[in-house]
Amino acid sequence: QVQLVESGGGLVQPxxxxxxxxxxxxxxxxxxxxxxxxxxxxxxxxxxxxxxxTTAGAYYRDSVKGRFTISRDNxxxxxxxxxxxxxxxxxxxxxxxxxxAYGELYHPDEYRWWGQGTQVSVSS
Length: 124
Hints:
Number of strands: 11
Order of helices and strands: EEEEEEEEEEE
Radius of gyration: 13 Å
Helix content: under 10%
């Protein structure tokens, strides 16, 4: 079993920054493809950023490119999403996810393990 836990959400103003964290209980994140998804009111769950299993290549949704950064710490214990220049349209519940699969995976059903979600609210 892989239990993922997110933290770091909150209420901020447009232009502010937040850093989200995701950890796996009882094990490292080594050997997984990793991703952040989000779900906003009135919308389905959508891809935000991924790290591939083999190369750790990072890929981003167009609307967050240049503002968000996905990364892992050196010990592979924590996945991060650094979010800068936040906009009201970034408001959503954010989820981390993990998979054993290889490749550039952008769909929620390609990920086996999920965190509980953390709320990010951006408003003035």
